[in-house]
């Protein structure tokens, strides 16, 4: 009997990590029913982060909440409360941007100028109201490029134009931002705030929030330049270069060049202003969910994501899962929607696109092809 740990990330926009793990497990047990299967869905801060914690942490409780969605409509979401520990007697609150202000909530529409992170901030505020001792925030899959102004507004900040009128939500409001009042900004919980992030982009410039991530949110070339200028204006205001100097507030002067400041349309920067710490997402998720302990003694670890490519080695969940497996002496298999990276160091690598015959077929019914992949891996062991 072999011990198999299945720890995939979600296949973004196609199938959740928990469903990926379940399909792979079903395919495996159809061939080798006596093996021990340990399913540990993974995440790196994007969609599926809440589900990964809920699946792996005994006693985790979902707390329902209604927030303002990315373009102003109401969204029913939840945050997750992890059990109390000596270090966090009030428990740890896990809040996910993807389910409160995420791009998937817009369907096929894009709202590059109106979309904001207000709902994400409202969910953070709800967790603070509940008395959590620490916050863990996942910030992937954002719909906006608002520099975190929406979430900071929900936490008590006020951003205004030259006439002391509150700016519009989203990136469009950054055209007019001239002043900021952070005197009512809520304090961080006593255990601090950790931001799970899988990118290292700065806020501004050619590698910044607007240039790199803006096009997928609907910004054209002219829009990218305008949004980047708005983010630069926000930085100036928060530094006190234009508008009123922020004095005596709880916020700190954040460096727009800090790794991760450009994540989630600049939400990373807004959270740095609040005083949060940006940490490698997959690494922290694995630590909090005990993935390393689960992998100890495994014969094989199966991981994967929608697209296994050149970016997968840079902070993505499969790279960290693979590193844990190799450290434990276990073989590693990758299952992905498409594979466009070197897999020579892996025991096996399976592409759903190849199994299904086309990317369209793989996307149309991923669970079926994941079960086939699970069976193929079991037959190869």
From TrEMBL:
Top-level taxon of origin: Bacteria
Transmembrane segments: none
Keyword Cell membrane carried by entry: no
Keywords tagged on the record: Kinase, Transferase
InterPro entries in the record: Glyc_kinase_flavodox-like_fold (IPR018193), Glycerate_kinase (IPR004381), Glycerate_kinase_RE-like (IPR018197), Glycerate_kinase_sf (IPR036129)
Family: Belongs to the glycerate kinase type-1 family.
Descriptive protein name: Glycerate kinase
């Amino acid at each position: 009997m072999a011990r198999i740990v299945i720890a995939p990330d979600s296949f973004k926009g196609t199938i959740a990590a928990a469903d990926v793990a379940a399909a792979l497990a079903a395919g495996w047990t159809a061939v080798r029913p006596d093996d021990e299967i340990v399913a540990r869905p993974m995440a790196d801060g994007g969609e599926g982060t809440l589900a990964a914690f809920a699946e792996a942490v005994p006693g985790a409780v979902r707390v329902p909440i209604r927030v303002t969605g990315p373009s102003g409509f109401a969204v029913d979401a939840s945050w997750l409360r992890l059990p109390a520990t000596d270090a966090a007697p009030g428990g740890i609150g896990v809040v996910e941007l993807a389910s409160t202000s995420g791009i998937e909530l817009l369907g096929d529409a894009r709202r590059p100028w109106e979309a904001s992170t207000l709902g994400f901030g409202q969910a953070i505020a709800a967790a603070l109201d509940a008395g959590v001792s620490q916050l863990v925030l996942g910030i992937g899959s954002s719909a906006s490029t608002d520099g975190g102004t929406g979430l900071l507004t929900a936490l008590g900040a006020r951003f205004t134009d030259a006439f002391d009128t509150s700016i519009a939500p989203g990136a469009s409001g950054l055209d007019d931002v001239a002043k900021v009042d952070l005197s009512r900004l809520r304090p961080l919980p006593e255990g601090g705030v950790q931001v799970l992030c899988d990118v290292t982009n700065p806020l501004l410039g050619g590698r910044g929030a607007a240039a790199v991530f803006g096009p997928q949110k609907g910004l054209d070339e002219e829009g990218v330049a305008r949004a980047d200028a708005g983010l630069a204006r926000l930085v100036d205001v928060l530094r006190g270069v234009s508008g009123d100097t922020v004095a005596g507030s709880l916020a700190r002067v954040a460096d727009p060049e800090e790794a991760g400041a450009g994540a989630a349309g600049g939400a990373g920067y807004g959270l740095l202003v609040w005083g949060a710490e940006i940490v490698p997402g997959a690494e922290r998720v694995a630590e909090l969910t005990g993935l390393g302990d689960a992998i100890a003694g495994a014969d094989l670890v199966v991981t994967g994501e929608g697209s296994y490519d050149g970016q997968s080695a840079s902070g993505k969940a499969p790279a960290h899962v693979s590193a844990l497996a190799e450290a434990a002496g276990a073989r590693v298999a990758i299952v992905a929607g498409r594979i466009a990276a070197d897999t020579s160091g892996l025991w096996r690598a399976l592409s759903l696109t190849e199994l299904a015959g086309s990317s369209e077929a793989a996307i149309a019914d991923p669970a079926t092809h994941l079960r086939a992949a699970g069976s193929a891996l079991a037959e190869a062991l």
